[in-house]
Amino acid sequence: MKKLFLYVFVLSFLSSCISSKKLTYFQGEPAEKSDLYRLNNEPYRLQVNDVLYIDIKAENPEIVALFKNSESSTTTEGGEGLYFTGYTVDRHGNIRIPYIGDLNVLGYTEKEVREKIEQELSKYVKKVESLFVTVKLAGINFVISGEVGSPGTINLAQNQVSIVDAIASAGDITTYGDRENVVVVRKTLDGVQKFKINLLEIDVFESENFYVKPNDVIYVAPLKQKTWGFGATGLQTFTTLVTVFSFITTTILLIQTF
């Protein structure tokens, strides 16, 4: 009986601890630059629900002011402020600009949208060369949940957000998070897509899904050790197992007494 208890104790201890290999990011050696580097650095193409920051400047500020949503849209604001003063891509792929009306931007890059706006403004402004139009995506908005420090909806005011940026902005993955099983759910023009990313491997930097897209949903699954309820470290597991086996031994002794 004692040998059986010892065997079960050792087996449970070894299987319940979280090894350092499960917690160490970017293991291995980086591969040579591939074609994925080019794909990951291609400009983003706008989708429905994206929010744009658009600023227009010219010699005559009174004229260009007519084409702006509001004066506050020319200032630098966070994601919440730009929700009201920015230009949201509607479900038809259009943004609505005063006097210009609906302008289709679905699938366009920031540069292409800027050129379209300049072309429309040239109908109203005599000195086209004096126009200076700025078009930027109003940050990358995404949702992150699961085994992270601070789950929720996050907006990062960056042109590109990698999966590493996203995880870091959410307070990193907890000890019980499965770094091999980070799931990204993405809604595209072709439908909903689902990807799995392994953050333990250095090859993640070469993944075509390394960069987060606006409105992505990121989920970090828990390790099986969390379900077992033992502990993340060897000391925690040892303490838990000692408590459990002490309870079992005490129960057996009481039964034998009676």
Automatic annotation (TrEMBL):
Q: Where is the Polysaccharide export protein N-terminal domain?
A: 41-129
The answer to whether keyword NADP applies is no
Q: How does it sit in the membrane?
A: Multi-pass membrane protein
Give the principal location in a single coarse category.
Answer: membrane
Q: Where is the SLBB domain?
A: 142-220
Q: Which residues cross the membrane?
A: 228-255
Q: Does the keyword field hold NADP?
A: no
Q: Which UniProt keywords apply?
A: Cell outer membrane, Ion transport, Lipoprotein, Membrane, Palmitate, Polysaccharide transport, Porin, Signal, Sugar transport, Transmembrane, Transmembrane beta strand, Transmembrane helix, Transport
Localization, per the record, is: Cell outer membrane
Signal sequence interval, chain numbering: 1-21
Pfam families in UniProt: Poly_export, SLBB_2
User: Which family does the UniProt entry place this protein in?
Assistant: Belongs to the BexD/CtrA/VexA family.
**Protein name, UniProt field:** Polysaccharide biosynthesis/export family protein
Q: Name its species.
A: Lutibacter holmesii
